[in-house]
Amino acid sequence: MNIEQIYTGCLAQGAYYIESDGEVAIIDPLRETQPYIDRAEREGATIKYVFETHFHADFVSGHIDLAEKTGATIVYGPNARTAYDIYSAKDGEEFKIGKVTIKVLHTPGHTLESTTYLLIDENGKHHAIFTGDTLFLGDVGRPDLAIKQDITKEDLAGMLYDSLREKIMPLADDVIVYPAHGAGSACGKNLSKETVDLLGNQKKTNYALRADMSKEEFVKEVLEGIMPAPQYFAKNAMMNKEGYQSFDSILQKGNIPLNPEDFEAMANHESALVLDVRNQEDFVKEHIPNAIFIGLNGSFAPWVGALIKDLDQPIILVAPEGKSEEAVTRLSRVGYDNTLGYLEGGMEAWKKAGKETDSIRSISADALEKEYNGEITILDVRKPGEYSAEHLENAVSFPLDFINEEMSAINKDQSYYVHCAGGYRSVIATSILKARGFDKLTDIAGGYKDIKETGMKRTDYVCPSTLK
Predict the structure, then answer these.
(1) Cβ neighbours of residue 36 closer than 8 Å, sequence gap 6 or more
(2) Could you tell me which of 175, 112, 117 has the C-alpha nearest to residue 145?
(3) Any residues with CB less than 8 A from the CB of 390 and at least 6 apart, and which?
(4) Which residues lie closer than 8 Å to 252 by C-beta, 6 or more apart?
(5) What is the mean pLDDT of residues 376-399?
(6) Which of 23, 244, 301, 411 has the smallest count of CB within 10 Å of its CB?
(7) Does residue 467 surpass a pLDDT of 50?
(8) Backbone phi, psi, residue 230, to 5°
(9) What is the pTM of this model?
(10) What is the residue-averaged pLDDT of the chain?
(11) Span 151-159, average pLDDT
(12) Residue 78, phi-psi category: left (phi > 0), alpha (psi -120 to 50), beta (remainder)
């Protein structure tokens, strides 16, 4: 038996490859499926099943493509309804993978169809659970994503309480927990940076698994402090239910080199969004006018999903040399399948063609301290919890997460200094504001990390765990 966790840091997502005696099961695969197929072929194995723990909201799964290419059966737990062929398993049903068994544990709460898969080894021992978004390390899945007219988030939280205590907590302490996500995912609020643990340790350390916890306490604590779901979540969940274009066709269409003239024409006449995915320092120095920056070196896909409202938005890329395919792939992971090409030769080709460029004023934290006179407005684009924990006195909370909704609260005639925690999010925010006509902007390189090293007055630190 071989278990491999395939963890993707940008999405904070874990997919799983399980092989026994020449048969393979894949759990919650990424959109691009060829790596799983190549791995199985190298081992002379056959992909027999694709198990989905639930309808994912934060990424588009590769289950449909993988099944079409390999003939594998897609398995969901109870209550799953799709527009394509699946096997809808019953609670307690078992599937053989070589010499091991995968048992279905229906664990509704995060969603109605949420299912945990229990791996039983060749000796009949309970070896591991693949919990999806039912149980994370340090947290549990948010129960507010699958609410319906007759089902509230409180109802789902109550179901989750029962699922954890009836299906998962009775399992032995030495059972390994393999969750679908780790720290950085918006599917929970307090996820651990670790990606694998023993169930016994989670029983001791995970607040949601306290043995003396009542259902009422659980519902209150699980729902407390949940940020609004990113706008793309519901759209990705629908793609996972209804189906999507093949990844191969998306890559073929999107990874096309464009010369500067064709690139500019596409931006002007096809309403294509110019998305610059280079390093933020390069973007600040020089970029195409009205381009939006979201760099590949940060939490690229989640920020694309949070900030670009339309999944069908035509996108053309400015990417580092050799990174266009990666950008198209990572866009498709969150459902942005309408990439139309990339600027061949990058900014050098653009300038050689005599095209206009733009830049962003950027200064250090030390320079900010020298320029600060008590009258300039500082926009803090970190998350509300980061701002509440500690911030510059008189800085205005202006979270990047909600920039599209809150833009009317600021004035195009006013000057703004923009900072985040380390410099990535502030450049995203500044690029969006600049593209919308705000031109009196200064980015603070190094963000709050560097600001704390200056003498500028800050609020007293408040531990996030005490914030309400």
Answers:
(1) 17, 24, 26, 29, 47, 62, 66
(2) 112
(3) 458, 459, 460, 461, 462
(4) none
(5) 96
(6) 411
(7) no
(8) -55, 150
(9) 0.93
(10) 95
(11) 96
(12) beta
